[in-house]
Design brief:
Layout: H1 12-17, E1 19-23, H2 31-41, E2 45-49, H3 55-66, E3 71-75, H4 80-88, E4 94-95, H5 101-110, E5 114-115, E6 117-118, H6 121-129, E7 136-137, H7 145-152, H8 171-176, E8 182-184, H9 186-189, H10 198-213
Helix pairs in contact: 2-3, 2-10, 4-5
Bound molecules: 2-keto 3 deoxy 6 phospho gluconate (ELE).
2-keto 3 deoxy 6 phospho gluconate (ELE) binds near residues 22, 49, 76, 95 and 96.
Length: about 210
């Protein structure tokens, strides 16, 4: 199907590293040291979720502290107002657990990459045809890489970012099944967002990136 829409492409950093760290914390306290650790390892695409208290203040802080070394987006975005607030705070991309056309419209207008979600072929194609930069397969862990491979056989044009329930050692399998990139939340963060060991976080980041390189 040929559409006359101008799709904002995913960032160069996402296409290169192929891993997005989903940072969902109970408090903003430990975000900065964890983010620094990930960026030092080369895991530079970071998604701060709106469910984290003070998420947009944290985004501003991380942007000031990490500058151009990180590709900082916002996740769990629902509704036009939240999308506008995240974009005003400088989000480099927006992610959602659903396909919300209002969020996508804000991203299209601002020419910022948008990653709305779907699970079924129809949901994924609907978000893709509406102009998603890539579609987030969510919750990916409930279906596995075989689902992605089967969906993309008749729909090879879809750029897909599986997220939700993915282990750090599963990255390679998802990329081989046709994913553009994967999102890693809990399996990557571990206890680092609660003040846990940053050395262990660095090791997990290195493992995830090694899996992405294949
Ligand atoms: O809400 C969004 O926009 C999200 O990005 C949701 C994330 O995909 C998951 O919260 C990550 O899930 P885990 O890797 O299982 O911890």
């Amino acid at each position: 199907m040929t559409l006359s829409l101008e799709r904002t492409p995913p960032s160069e950093a996402l296409c290169r590293t192929r891993v997005v760290a989903v940072l969902r914390a109970d408090s903003p306290e430990h975000l900065l040291p964890a983010a620094r650790t990930l960026v030092e390892q080369g895991l530079v695409c970071l998604e701060l979720t709106m469910t984290t208290p003070g998420a947009l203040d944290s985004l501003r802080l991380l942007r000031a502290e990490l500058g151009a070394s990180a590709d900082l987006g916002v996740g769990s975005v629902r509704g036009a107002e939240a999308a506008r607030q995240a974009l005003d705070a400088g989000a480099a991309f927006l992610v959602s657990p659903v396909f919300d056309p209002a969020v996508l419209a804000e991203c299209v207008a601002a020419r910022v990459p948008a990653y709305p979600a779907g699970l079924t072929p129809t949901e994924l194609v609907t978000a893709w045809d509406a102009g998603a930069s890539a579609v987030k397969l969510f919750p990916a862990g409930t279906v596995g890489p075989a689902h992605l491979q089967a969906v993309r056989e008749p729909l090879p044009e879809l750029a897909v970012m599986p997220t939700g329930g993915i282990g750090i050692d599963d990255v390679g399998a998802w990329l081989r099944a046709g994913a553009l990139a994967v999102g890693l939340g809990g399996s990557l963060s571990g206890d680092a967002l609660r003040g846990g060991d940053l050395g262990a976080l660095a090791d997990r980041a290195a493992r995830a990136l090694a899996g992405a390189r294949g």
